[in-house]
Hints:
Layout: H1 3-7, H2 11-39, H3 52-67, H4 79-104, H5 112-132, E1 142-147, H6 151-159, E2 169-175, E3 190-191, H7 197-203, E4 208-211, H8 222-230, E5 234-237, H9 238-246, H10 256-260, H11 269-305, E6 312-318, E7 324-330, H12 354-361, H13 370-375, E8 379-381, H14 388-397, E9 410-412, H15 414-418, H16 425-441, H17 444-459
Parallel strand pairs: 1-2, 1-4, 2-3, 4-5, 8-9
Antiparallel strand pairs: 6-7
Amino acid sequence: MNTTLFSGIKPSSVIVIVTDYIAIIGAYFLCYYLVTHYLISDDYLTIINQWVQPIIFAITISIFILSVGLYNVKLRENFSGIVIRIFVCVLLAYIIDKVVYALTEINQPAHFAEYFSIFAFITLVCTRYLLSKTAYQSLGERNILVLGTGERAKVIEQYMRRKTDRIGLNFVGFIEMPGDAADGIKRERKLDLKESLETFALKNHVDEIVVACDERRNVLPNESLAICKRQGINISNIVDFFEHETGQVVVTQVYPSWIIYGPNHRYSPLHKSLDWLFNTCISLAIFSVVWPFMLLAMLAIKLEDGLRAPVFYSQIRVGLDGKLFSIYKFRSMSIDAEKDGAKWAQTSDPRVTKVGHFLRKYRIDELPQLFNVLRGDMGFVGPRPERPQFTKEFEIEIPYYNQRYSVRPGLTGWAQLKYPYGSSKQDAIEKLKYDLYYIKYRGFLFDLLILLRTTEVVLFGKGR
């Protein structure tokens, strides 16, 4: 189970969650008061489930808020984008609310759900706006001291350069260590200590020391680090720190021991059976909802390319243990798209049809892969399977690339949420960082989180 992912909830995220609940409960009782005192003529009419509805609504909307990334304090979105996401969440929660009350047949004042949804939307937008004007994100901020200024420390400067990447973190500075590469960090604050490491750390209220020096033998101040640890200062290496803060693995910095001593990815026969049953049930449930959209997709492809044009497209992909299988999609490219051989799909690929562009944007072209899930070729969550023409090259040139074959490929994955598009070898390296993180920390809760967050990809056309 991914303990790293769920144990390190930031205080700023807790503030947002609590604020949202207060806003929803407050909106409910304000709406209840106005409806019962001004919009209903029958004085005796009361709502018998005063606590049931706001709790159901709050839980439902919280799940949707989580699914569209609004509990991610490092979300890169302007306020208008946040308002749109809140509106979508309230709309979906309203639909669920109406379905629940229709099934339970509990009496409600006319249009109460509509009024409540409007009040909830307004209060959520207002509280998010007020939060955006405060420094709540700095609550619980940790002071970080980095030992190293070379290649290993450079990954912080390269991949955590944005302000949103450093929410909750304050880098006190970087200390140059013997053996550090000269072409390391360029913009970070370098420190020249005039005192012992433990004295500096305590004086500057350091919460965590990250060991990121290029040479570790006979270089680390082990006695000072031990003193710091006894004083409650966390000591971590750059690989673990980077994993925890970014949700990816620094492929170029990990040692073979990271793989050798890592978790065993093999499932027991019972676990495999339960995993297949879980994926099968979800596949059938999703198919029962999306089959009309699949029929419309088939019709649109035929209308654009002619009645004789193929609707489906299959490719050979590399799956679990490196075994090949056929993956199925709705055809989104022209019929002769690969007449010159396999090519990377580009962001604005001229081979993509007009219908295909829409299908790709909202992931509708991926729906036939439900059949792959039923066959056991794929799961719902896992690294996206790649074509053998490309994997042969990647296995040679990208360290640890073949570790992707240790788990079943998926319809969606951590890499698709965090690094939405890939069309080159460099993109494959970036996606591998997230795939390795998923492989290391995968578990039921992590899979559930990825499935929920995939809603953001589908609803807002994010990623591919």
